[in-house]
Specification:
Elements: E1 2-7, H1 11-19, E2 27-33, E3 37-39, H2 44-49, E4 58-60, H3 61-68, E5 71-74, E6 77-81, E7 86-89, E8 94-96, E9 99-102, H4 116-119, H5 129-138, E10 141-145, H6 149-164, E11 171-176, H7 186-198, E12 202-205, E13 208-212, E14 215-218, E15 223-225, E16 228-231, H8 239-242, E17 254-256, E18 268-270, E19 275-277, H9 287-305, E20 320-324, E21 330-334, E22 337-341, H10 342-360
Helix pairs in contact: 1-9
Length: 361
Amino acid sequence: MKTIILVGGGHSHLHCLKKIDHKEENVKWMLISPSRYQYYSGMFSGYTEGIYALEETRIDLKNFCERAGCDFVEGTVLSIDPDQQHLLTDQGDIFTYDFVSFDIGSRNDSMEIQGLHEHNLPIKPNYRFPEQIEKLHNSRRTVFIGGGAASIEMALSLKAWKMDKGYGDHSIAVVHSSPLLEKAGSFSSKKMTDLARSKGIELHQGRVKKIESARLHTDEGEILEFDEVIFLGGPKAPPLFGSSVLGNDEKGFLLVNSYLQSVDYPNVFGTGDCATLQDFPDLPKNGVTAVRQGPVLWRNLTGAAAGEKIIPFEPQKRYLAIMSVGNGLGFLTYGSFSLVSRWAWRLKNWIDVRFVGKYEG
C-alpha cells in the first residue's frame, strides 16, 4: 500500500480530496493542515465588508476528510527529509510517505522592509484571517502596502464596511511602489486608481523603507501614521522549503517541473502559491492557477502511485479575474480589458459560493 500525504488544504488539494474513493485499498491518504478549517481567499473581501458570515467562507477539512476516507492531522509541517521520506510536525510527530504534495500557500510579509515583521498584520496562513479582520474593523488608521489586486480589494472592502457602520472618519491608505494593477495594463490601472480615489482611499506612490512604532516611512520622504499596517505586496515564500534540501527558486518557493514534481525529488509535488513552475517562472500565484492545477495534481499523484503515465500542466495565457470593490460592485479583468459593474460582482459571488459549497456539501 502506498501512502500519499497532502500538506495544506489549498485549492488543488481540495480537488484531490473530492476525488478520493474511500473504497480504494491500494493507497492510504492523509491531510496535514494547521487548522481544521480552510478559509477561502476569494471571500476574504466579502467577509471584510460584512457580506458573508464566517461559516460561509470556510471548509471543514476534518469533516471533509472523514467523508473522503482520508486521515486528518491538525498540525504544521516544520521540516521534510526527502531522502528518508519523513515529515516532522510542530506536534513532534514524524510521518513517512511514498508521495507528498504541498499546497500550503504563501506569507504576507517581507523581510526587505525594516521593522515590518514586528508591526505587520499577518492573514496568512489563512486560518489567521478572521481575528485579523476584527483588528482592521477596529483600526482608525489603516495602511495597506502593495498595489496589486489583493491590497486594493481589501482596502476598498474595508472602506465599504467603515462607511456602512458610520466610521467615515477612519482613514484607509494604500502605499504602492508601482501603478495599481500594473500587470493588468495601463487602462485598467487608471480605472482602478480613479475608482479608489472616488471611494476615499488615500493613495501614496512610493516604496516603504522602514516601519517603527506607529509610523511608516517611504522613499519619497512621506511619513504615515497607522494603527494597523498590512503587507499585501505579493506572495512571499513559506520558510519550510528554504530550510530543506529541496530545490527552490531565487525567492524560496518550491521549484517544480511541468508535472508539478520537485525538480530534485519526483515523489514530492507542489502546487498553488507555494510553488514555482520551472518553465513558467512568471506565472501568477493566484487562485485561478491553483484551481486549474488540481485535476493535473490528482492525475499525477494517483498515476505515480500506480506506476502509470502522468501529464503536464499547461497554464492559461489569459484568465478572467473579478475583484470585489465594495457596495455590490465587481471589477472584472480579462487580459487588458476591464469593467466595473454589479453583474460582475454577482458573477463573482456565484463562483465563490459555488466553490465553497462544492466541498462543504
